[in-house]
Design a protein that fits this description.
Elements (H helix, E strand, L loop, with lengths): L2 E3 L11 H9 L6 H21 L3 E13 L2 E11 L5 E7 L3 E2 L5 H10 L1 E5 L25
Parallel strand pairs: 1-4
Antiparallel strand pairs: 2-3, 2-6, 3-4, 3-5
Length: 144
């Protein structure tokens, strides 16, 4: 079956989806796994949104790729199937990001491996906040 590629549901063009995330949540001196976790949480939310629209999540990857000593890129690919069994791919790749966001260990690993890919499993349902029972009081009879 043909693969459809869509970007709209992420609220931005494909080219700036990850850049928007990066400007909001990334801090300097991060490990690769920390960086992946931050984006995994955001992508989980997007996956749940697509599932709410009737798409079945099949799988996906998040990648951190080495460009050179000064830059790296982030990308993701998410695969869904609609009710008719049509495959839908949602993906994006960032503009080059400065390696100053990575700590020395992360940069060294990325430099040697060139690309680190993380599998994106189906997200767990969001945890509901515990419902607190309202306080129940008796109406006093002798209040003036």
């Amino acid at each position: 079956m043909p693969l459809k590629s869509m970007f709209g549901p992420f609220g931005a063009t494909a080219a700036n989806v990850i850049d928007t995330f990066l400007n909001v949540i990334i801090s300097p001196n991060m490990e690769l796994d920390e960086l992946a976790k931050v984006y995994s949480d955001k992508l989980d939310s997007n996956i749940r949104d697509e599932q709410a629209k009737g798409l079945d999540y099949v799988g996906g990857t998040f990648k951190i790729s080495y460009v050179n000593e000064k830059y790296f890129t982030l990308s993701f690919e998410l695969y869904f199937q609609d009710k008719n069994g049509e495959w839908i791919k949602k993906d994006a790749k960032s503009k080059p990001q400065k390696t100053e966001y990575l700590n020395e260990k992360a940069l060294k690993e990325l430099r040697s491996k060139k690309e680190i890919a993380y599998e994106l499993d189906e997200p767990e349902p969001p945890k509901a906040a515990p419902q607190k029972e309202p306080e129940v009081r008796k109406i006093p009879k002798n209040v003036q």
